């Protein structure tokens, strides 16, 4: 009898202790409601641009006569186009360079400076494309220099992908965007 | 004898009751904790707002890759009924219940309860707030970051960071925008003309640099985020980009072309000292500091095609870093890793695909991170596990996020405009 009781107690003890708690005890950390976490960052007020503190970016103003001469010259010079990922002057563009040099050295144009603007198509990361556009502008500047245009008259800028001539997604359009253009400076 | 046996048995069984009392879920990262979200906000709070908040918070938990998320909008009471505290049909491990309110000053307050869905008991309670309603995405991000910390997962603090990006809005027109990583919050900070390549000036993100192309020469400006005050730093003919800032904020890595030639320079904003780093006659761009700001990794076409190189400051010796691909046009570096964008051959991945690759600078390790579309401009987060990038697909641009350890990629489309460059 005693053995049976002992055995029963043993079994009961083992069963109850062996069944470990299925629901783990929880850390009942109750937070004080006055303890509030803010999601504001340090720069909690993002301001827009303060226009009063901006430098004047205005370009030099032109007289009507100057403006019309500039428009006439810009209408005559032709764009120079480039192959994909290239900045050398293509054979079929050399005649354009020669023609542009004649126009820019003509009487009505030779007193003006000019801005040679390089551009790229949309392929690739923009920082590389700004540099590629600049190399294209440099190639044109050097070629014009070889044709007798004083390089002191020429300043370069690259617009990378920002200045597309067309926006379709096809090879013809991308070819139109890989170009150098000319702006006459008053 | 029997008494001795009983005593021994009692002692043995007592020790078996000393079970570990901490929450089991916290320790098991090999099995992701299953979590359900409940919206217990009052019906007076606009439902569309509540659902947008829900969507961002649930998105954060998914992107973290540290949770198995129940992707269902659930409403509940704040105290919780028995069913609401267990959600027995969904079998979650955790329930995150939030109650949004807006006080008289316009502050958004989120009261949270984290419930152990196995016991139905509250595990933790917190309150969060943010001062402006438009900034609610950052409220959600903070909650996700802290919940992630609470379960002991690797930090996702990058979710709280501002992203700054420029987007083309028209021909020679762009705007600079500060946003969160999901583009749910956006604030235009520079507009009017062509303003590009924004770059944070420091880790606290209270100022940034950007290039303005509105005057005769490209000009680099620094802007104070809080006041909007703009200061001219330097200008250059041709092109000008700030591509990196040293960790002490004093030295900028610039791509500029004072002699019609795009090269890498460093510029000390205090001493105004400009140092020419590269002088190759082709293209050198996209310089980034590595090795405690002592070396610069950059993109160059000196082999006839764009590739990734590194050069120590003060040395002329250049090391090629990538031996794969024939057009690697953008890179970001962190510790011993470089992530770069590479143009694929047309026959392999469709037409004109650019994919991201991850390499180690110490071993031959290389891993492809994307498969389709145009994936450009990668930027590492400080945690080394997350990469932000620009994804172009189907005539739309998007902010992409890759979680390296989980091998998952997410993207957040920009509805208007085309993303030009990014930083965070």
Secondary-structure topology with pairs:
The complex is a heterodimer of chains A (186) and B (424).
Chain A: H1 2-18, E1 36-38, H2 64-76, E2 80-81, H3 94-105, E3 113-118, H4 126-146, E4 154-158, H5 171-177, E5 179-185
Parallel strand pairs in A: 3-4
Antiparallel strand pairs in A: 2-5, 3-5
Chain B: H1 2-15, E1 34-39, H2 47-64, E2 68-69, E3 74-75, H3 82-86, E4 94-102, E5 108-116, E6 121-130, H4 136-150, E7 163-170, E8 173-179, E9 186-190, E10 195-200, E11 207-212, E12 219-224, E13 230-235, E14 240-245, E15 251-256, E16 263-268, E17 274-276, E18 284-290, E19 295-300, E20 307-312, E21 318-320, E22 328-334, E23 337-343, H5 346-349, E24 354-360, E25 366-368, E26 374-380, E27 386-393, E28 396-403, E29 408-413, E30 418-423
Parallel strand pairs in B: 1-2, 1-3, 1-4
Antiparallel strand pairs in B: 4-5, 5-6, 7-8, 7-30, 8-9, 10-11, 11-12, 12-13, 14-15, 15-16, 16-17, 18-19, 19-20, 20-21, 22-23, 23-24, 24-25, 26-27, 27-28, 28-29
Helix pairs in contact in B: 2-4
3D architecture notes:
- The complex is a heterodimer of chains A (186) and B (424).
- Chain A has a domain at 79-185: 60s Ribosomal Protein L30, Chain: A.
- Chain A has five helices and five strands.
- Chain A has helices at 2-18, 64-76, 94-105, 126-146, 171-177, and strands at residues 36-38, 80-81, 113-118, 154-158, 179-185.
- Chain A has a four-stranded mixed β-sheet with strand order 2-5-3-4.
- In chain A, strand 3 (113-118), helix 4 (126-146) and strand 4 form a beta-alpha-beta unit.
- The longest helix of chain A is centred in the last third of the chain and has 21 residues, at 126-146.
- Chain A starts with a helix and ends with a strand.
- The model of chain A is unreliable at 17-33 and 50-58 (pLDDT under 50).
- Chain B contains five helices and 30 strands.
- In chain B, strands 1, 2, 3, 4, 5 and 6 form a six-stranded mixed β-sheet that branches. A four-stranded antiparallel β-sheet of chain B has the order 9-8-7-30, with no helix packed on it.
- In chain B, helix 2 (47-64) crosses helix 4.
- At the A-B interface, helix 1, strand 1, helix 4 and strand 4 of A face helix 1, strand 6, helix 4, strand 9 and strand 18 of B.
